UniProtKB/TrEMBL annotation:
Chain segments annotated as transmembrane: 12-31, 97-118, 284-306
EC number in record: 2.7.13.3
InterPro entries the record matches: Bact_2-comp_sensor_kinase (IPR050640), HATPase_C_sf (IPR036890), HATPase_dom (IPR003594), Sig_transdc_His_kin-like_C (IPR004358), Sig_transdc_His_kin_internal (IPR010559)
Record field: catalytic activity: ATP + protein L-histidine = ADP + protein N-phospho-L-histidine
Cellular component aspect of the GO annotation: membrane
Protein name as it appears in the record: histidine kinase
Organism expressing this protein natively: Paenibacillus ferrarius
Amino acid sequence: MFKRVRIGRLFFGSFAAFIAVLLLISSWIGYSLTSRELASNTASYQQDLLNELNKRLVTQLNSVEQMSLAAYRNIETIAFDPLESDLFERNRRKVDLISLLASITYSTTMVQSIYLYIERPFSTDAQGPLRVYDLQKVKEEAWFPSIQNNDFAWIEERTIPTNSGPIPVISFARKLYNNSGIYYGMLLLNVKSSEIQNLIRGETEGRSRLLVDASGRKIATIGNPDLQESELENIRLLKEKSGSIHLTSKPQGDSLLVWSKSPSNWTLIEMTPWNTIIHGSIRLALILLTVGLSAIFVASFVTFFISRQFTTPIKLLVAFMGKLPDRGFVADLPRDYTNEFGNLFNGYRKQMERIEELLESLKAQHKRQREAEIKALQAMINPHFLYNTLDQLNWLAIDSGQDKISKILSLMGKMFRIGLSNGETLIPIADEITHVECYLQIQQIRWGDRLTFTISIDEAAKELYIPRLTLQPFIENAIIHGFHGRKTGNIRVSVHLLNQDIRFQIEDNGVGLRPDWDQPKARKTGGYGMRNVKERMEAYFGPPYGIRITSTEGTGTEVTILLPQIRNKEEVEERYDVENTHY
């Protein structure tokens, strides 16, 4: 009873270990689920925040665009002309133009300065917010390609010189046209980058955000949002106004990308390192992992302590299992165990007794197997002996000048090789036709010009397969029996593809077949090859496939063999391996 209790404790220890493993799995699942949930909540929160910031940002950017449009219309109204003949009128309009553009910078803190590009620039106050440049200079600016094909455009962040030092700005450029639609100048409003960045930043700190225009160009950034051009292009092509993506291909690590699009296609993007989002998940996973490892340690200690009570019988059993099955050694196994180990010892004892019986049986089987292998090796020697003998006879015939005998021996060697085919049941139709042709050439040597034959075959049929030695028995019958007593003979062999089938036809002009040709004979007088082929076809293929023979006494015989097209011999070869056919 006490030993059964110890078995129960072992089970309990194993169960404790199983629970510890489950805790490890739970830690991983908990980490995965919480990571997804945190990423989802973070993305949702950031989308709401970006939507609100985008609204404010678009409002301010639209106000800059409206300022530019109002200035454009007022400039046209002032109609400053540097070629004006009236000096007083020209100065008055110049002062009005300077006052107009300066008032825009004074009306808002966003605009730092204004650049005006015209054909005949005039000097301005170096301390003032207005700069006037030659229109030809605009083509030399790095930002010119951004507006070259547009009437107005936002220009990405750049640095301009001022009296207080270089200042980063984001500019809005607008082309100027007169009433006749002729382009005569360029107006550039330089917006302080810090103002745009404050709008992008909102009330949050330490974020990486990026402002992108409708064409996918980076206009302003805060933090360090490292995005590739291809990634920006993918976001630009998305139809969703807001969304999030988990980027896994960043060199600096995974990140969460959240974006918000305005109706005017301004896109505000925020990048958050993935490790920042899942920091809480990692902490929770570490806690669960610590608990799991502690449980494993405790369970392992308890299991090890309890398992020591079982090591003696187990080691004893393992020692006996490692010995060779010598007769009678199982009698040394203990018999005083009444628990599960007693059942194991008794079962092992019976098993070893059974193994002794099997060993005796295996010895006898091994002896029979060796005898069979020797016979198989002898059987393998026979074809090679036959090939070598024919080859030697062929050389003797050549040395003796017996060309016909040499040719017959050569054709016979080729026939034997195809006929045996290394034990293959199915051979290519091309080989079967070669076998038939060799046989006919041998007979033609004996008959001379009195025997003629023709063979026609579809090229596509040559690669298909056929049971070996299917056609030769019918040709042999035509020559031996069909042409018996005749001075001449003609044989026609044709192979044609019919849909998924293939048809073989063998025709001769001999005396025809007897009505009882397919009946077994009382004596082995030959002629059973055709019956054998017919029985094989019926057994392996069945209707509608098989052999049809039509014969007219005195005029000849026609044999038609219809078979399916066999392209993969491995699929059907097992059906033939069970039977050895001899001719």
